[in-house]
Specification:
The protein is of the alpha+beta class. The chain has three domains: 94 residues, Rossmann fold, CATH 3.40.50.20; 64 residues, Dna Ligase, domain 1 (2-Layer Sandwich), CATH 3.30.1490; 208 residues, D-amino Acid Aminotransferase, Chain A, domain 1. Helices cover 29% and strands 26% of the residues. A hairpin with a 2-residue loop joins strand 9 and strand 10. The relative contact order is 0.10.
Length: 416
């Protein structure tokens, strides 16, 4: 193997090595690799690889910190960023350093929901009605093409935080005008509520071609999860029509290489675009995808970014009807206590459908998160059929109880 660097690779480190497996997907002997990381995430870098690690504060503007951190180093040939929060920052760094790749203007359709839906609608695909909140407030409820249930959401938000649903457009606008829902108006939009089950389609692209693509259906919703209800998803059929529709959406927003997490509403007349990110889905999406297809999405995406579409890429398995996986999270962040007691879970924990189970003890704190290490119960299910996985989740969600526990067991013991 040649020891001469072929490429100078700059990794804006955010996603942990346990998720990405950098060493398996970047030839650190062949390439000159630099990781820019914060002190809080240094422990999640790959170990025992020949690479340069530069620390940034993590308290200021991401792009400014990264540019300052690599000052004096050779200009990178490629910049890798796997976090949705860093999509704009990575484009800013590329522009500042003169590195090829998507510009800020080119990545806006995967961060700003108004630009995103406008791009998809221009491609002839159905999207919910929408309007920037300042425009709707100025022009009134009659200016938008729907009058029923209305969603108020951030234009660039994630994790379903700050989302509210109102019975009408007027109710949504009045809530903002009267201060009942104090929001930064310039950063929000309103959107038509479209009824239907929500799907997520995940995968990796190389020059617009899917290396792997797989659809799943949520059990529960991200909004209800933010409000304290369990959430899961199960893999479903990913037929050619859904694949074609997904690729048209991705092309419309400019995603051609790397990760994608696309959400859509299933309706009797076909899917309705909801949103898309140039990232992996949260919860158990990465692991369940790998179990079903053999593809570790973030790792393969890194390989595509470094080596290009001609890289040696794995071939995805196509899971059969009884070879599907699912995952779920039972939250505890709305309990009013950082600690919880769990009951009613034992019969489910021992079920043969359970591939992996994670459960917090009464003295381990919980918080709002999609990470299994931060919630009362998280599990991976399968392999089995979509209906069996959904049935298991429905029963568990109805049976398991998570209650507040004021003061951890350890704290009580230490006070005695």
């Amino acid at each position: 193997m040649s020891l001469e660097p072929k490429l100078r690779v700059l990794v804006m480190h955010s996603l942990a090595d346990s998720s990405v497996r950098y060493a398996q997907n970047i030839d650190h002997d062949k390439h000159d690799v630099t990781y820019v990381s914060t002190s809080a995430k240094l422990g999640t870098l790959p170990k025992d690889v020949p690479a340069r690690v530069v620390e940034r504060a993590g308290t200021g503007d991401v792009a400014d910190e990264v540019v300052a951190a690599v000052k004096g180093l050779p200009t990178p040939d490629v910049i890798i960023s796997l976090s949705e929060f860093d999509v704009i920052a990575a484009a800013q760094v590329r522009e500042a350093l003169g590195v090829p790749g998507p510009t800020v203007r080119e990545v806006l359709p995967v961060r700003n929901k108004v630009v995103m839906k406008s791009s998809v609608a221009k491609a002839g695909l159905r999207v919910p009605g929408f309007a920037p909140l300042p425009q709707a407030l100025a022009q009134g409820a009659e200016s938008v093409p729907w009058q029923g249930r209305t969603v108020l959401k951030p234009q660039s938000g994630v994790l379903a935080q700050q989302i509210r649903i109102f019975p009408t457009v007027t109710a949504a606008l009045d809530a903002v005008r009267h201060g009942d829902v104090p929001v930064p108006v310039e950063d929000f939009e309103i959107e038509e509520f479209v009824s239907g089950r929500i799907m997520h389609i995940d995968g990796v692209l190389a020059q617009g071609r899917p290396i792997a693509i797989l659809a799943s259906r949520y059990v529960g919703t991200c909004l209800s999860y933010a409000e304290g209800s369990p959430l899961g998803s199960v893999q479903i059929d990913t037929g050619p029509e859904l694949v074609d529709w997904s690729l048209r959406c991705l092309k419309a927003v400019g995603i051609e290489n790397g990760l994608f997490h696309l959400e859509a509403i299933a309706t009797p007349t076909g899917p309705v675009f909801l949103e898309v990110g140039a990232r992996c889905g949260g919860g158990g999406v990465i692991d369940s995808f790998e179990l079903a297809t053999g593809i570790r999405m973030p790792g393969v995406a890194v390989r595509v970014h470094v080596e290009g579409a001609t890289a040696s890429l794995p071939t995805a398995r196509i899971p059969g009807p009884d070879e599907r996986y699912g995952w779920f999270l039972v939250p505890g962040h709305t309990l009013g206590s950082p600690y919880c007691r769990i009951s009613g879970e034992q019969a489910f924990r021992d079920d043969p459908l359970v591939h992996r189970w994670s459960q917090r003890t009464p003295d381990e704190p919980v918080k709002f998160s999609y990470a299994s290490s931060n919630v009362p119960i998280a599990a991976m299910l399968g392999p089995s059929s979509t209906s069996a996985l959904e049935g298991f989740m429905a029963s568990l969600f109805a049976s398991v109880r998570v209650e507040p526990h004021h003061g951890s067991v350890r704290a009580v013991e230490e006070s005695v």
